[in-house]
Design brief:
Flavocytochrome B2, Chain A, domain 1; 5 helices; elongated
Length: about 130
């Protein structure tokens, strides 16, 4: 019985030592993307052109470029409160003016702006409306 307790204690302290050594090495575990479950690329930003965005111009794959950023809003499209045609006409396009005005001269709420960030996938390169 004493041998089992001694071995368990030794294993415990080895585990503590390993945690201290790894934790003190300055290495950080990579962030895990909620969308893919894979480690996020923290050192480089993915960039897309308007041609890349245009390849996702349907309700089944809806990307939008807004203020120089690219968003994959496919999952949100069915939940958008407006008529689906209003939302879908911006799929695959530069949609800054549509987002800023809601096609009626009214801006989206701060909540909608924060929610949009959930769908961010990268930066737009080339021509955009800022």
């Amino acid at each position: 019985m004493k041998t089992i307790v001694l071995i368990a204690t030794l294993i415990f302290w080895c585990g503590i030592a390993a945690i201290l050594v790894l934790g003190g090495s300055g290495r950080e575990l990579p962030a895990i993307s909620a969308k893919s479950g894979q480690p996020e690329q923290t050192s480089a930003v993915t960039t897309y052109s308007l041609a890349d965005v245009a390849r996702h111009g349907s309700a089944e794959s809806c990307w939008m470029a807004i203020h120089g950023k690219v968003y994959d809003v496919t999952a949100y499209a069915p939940h958008h409160p407006s008529n689906p045609a209003v939302f879908q006409k911006y799929c695959g396009r530069e949609a800054t003016i549509g987002f800023d005005t809601k096609d009626r001269g009214r801006p989206h709420s701060s909540t909608a702006k924060r929610r949009l960030e959930e769908f961010y996938i990268g930066e737009l390169v080339g021509r955009s409306i800022n």
